[in-house]
Amino acid sequence: MSFAVGIDLGGTNTKLAVVDRAYRILTHRSVPTQPETGPRAVIAALTQVAEALVQQANLAHGDVVGVGFATPGPLDLGAGRITKAANLPGWHHVPVRDLLRERIGLPVTLENDGNAAAFGEYIAGAGVGCEHLVVLTLGTGVGAGVIVDGAVLHGHFDNAGELGHMIVVVDGLPCPCGQRGCLERYASADAIVRRVEANAETPKRRNTETCRPEPTAYSLQSTAEKPRTASDIARAATNGDAVCAKVWDEACKYLAVACVNIQHAFNPQRILLGGGMSLAGDLLLAPVREHVRSQAWSLHADLPEITLAKLGPDAGVIGAAALAFDAFGSS
Amino acid sequence: MSFAVGIDLGGTNTKLAVVDRAYRILTHRSVPTQPETGPRAVIAALTQVAEALVQQANLAHGDVVGVGFATPGPLDLGAGRITKAANLPGWHHVPVRDLLRERIGLPVTLENDGNAAAFGEYIAGAGVGCEHLVVLTLGTGVGAGVIVDGAVLHGHFDNAGELGHMIVVVDGLPCPCGQRGCLERYASADAIVRRVEANAETPKRRNTETCRPEPTAYSLQSTAEKPRTASDIARAATNGDAVCAKVWDEACKYLAVACVNIQHAFNPQRILLGGGMSLAGDLLLAPVREHVRSQAWSLHADLPEITLAKLGPDAGVIGAAALAFDAFGSS
Fold this sequence. Notes:
The structure is a homodimer. Chain A has 2 domains: about 5-120 and about 315-330, ATPase, nucleotide binding domain (Nucleotidyltransferase, domain 5, 2-Layer Sandwich); about 125-310, ATPase, nucleotide binding domain (Nucleotidyltransferase, domain 5, 2-Layer Sandwich), CATH 3.30.420.40. Helix content of chain A is about 35%, strand content about 20%. Chain A has helices at about 40-55, 95-105, 115-125, 190-200, 220-225, 230-240, 240-265, 280-295, 315-330, and strands at about 5-10, 15-20, 25-30, 65-70, 75, 80-85, 90-95, 110, 135-140, 140-150, 150, 270-275, 305-310. In chain A, strand 10 and strand 11 form a beta hairpin. In chain A, helix 1 (about 40-55) crosses helix 2. The interface between A and B is large, with 53 and 52 residues.
């Protein structure tokens, strides 16, 4: 029996796990990343935690075939580098793969975090058996990964599957990436909370002077009890909060547009929705599926099944470990 | 030396060619398809032409390794069937691969026409050396094909790369496919001609009674000399025709949105533009590239090169023949 370590580096927290060949987590921990301490310090700290987790699982260093290292992108996979990551300020062109390998003394494979999560769902989650799979992780942003013929799609520049930055609204809301109208401006957990707050603070009126008042347009709830999470907003929407309903439905509609475009681009068997927004469960699935049905073509029955991801926040570490098995585990 | 036959079945005309291992066309012909005569009659007629082309190339039946058959989709590749094609009325679930194989007495491989054209450009055109490539054929509709790691991407339902039906305008113009706002409603050669004609016939005015006249908004040219082709419209646009300029620029802008979304989905090295609209050359490339530059993210330099396809209307037959070599040419 052999084992792998999966590390899922985030801007705030980093998850680490020791995983067996059946993709079960033996030991795991989440620690603050503290990216401001710099790549070397972060990697030294993560190495310490990883070694402790291996010990805690009653394993020796030699039982571990390697480390899968999932990090925010964009990446240069050939060089093993993080090119530039929005939530790792100052980490430019950092050779994280080699830094970790030298420190931990094990082979390391680097992967984009969205891709690692998608591979995790493919190998051990809601995408098992789907050789063509797309996973959208609706959290702070929209992470994504694409599985083609059972492997992660990288493309020529290593950044395939950055589906959170597909433009769904031409000339739409500005995104820190430099574009306008990106999917993640409308349909990430954070975007929804932000949009509800913005709408609640400054409700729009048509030509204030001439219009009749609209007493029911914005319920008290949206200003009185500020919803804190995407799921809260989904619930408030079903309970009649007009602002929440508008923002949530718009998010579901643009997600559906993305799903239709994914259908035509990759023609996957399944599209999985994960991340904070997916905690709303059926309150997310039902309207997204309905919008897809009304927007997708009627030419041919090639609509992917749209359903929830299964591994939750563990998808990244499990996927990363699975990629280490693929790369280094000659069984 | 061995040879292959490429057939590119269209709603109006079908192209056939005998192709050698260097992907050179030895003999070729274009014939009316006459789909209304039914699949068997069409395939019998095409077989006759193919056999004549083999003879004309001074080849024997045994010199031909097989036939690559490119047809409009959607297809069921496993069963070798055209599921339903908008421009082949009445051809539903037709097992064209087996019909042709039985008639012509050679192995036949079936492929979507957009995919075959993309493979042609990859193997012998403007995409040589690009293992990750996307080709958009801007003609009657928008045909497309995606090359991933040097092979045609099919996806789970065999219809990957139907990029002409990516939604670029939510709730936009209706498309015969059943969707609204498909790329091909804005950026195909036919769509452009149609939109210019529609605009020229019924120029929009703001609240006619109160607005001042807009003498320069629509030049005489657009009503007097109706542009007939997409290239004519591109030229009229540069010559100051306001309707043509508006329609052409909008087409280029939506094409650029599609290119940005293709960048994030597939991250290809190159995107090729072919078909009738691409005959406009730099009048197409320059504004598309400019719109891409202004719309794409600034996070990372992974912008694919956007350039013109090279094989013109031969891309389909060359690609189809090349796929026959891949499938049946053992050497």
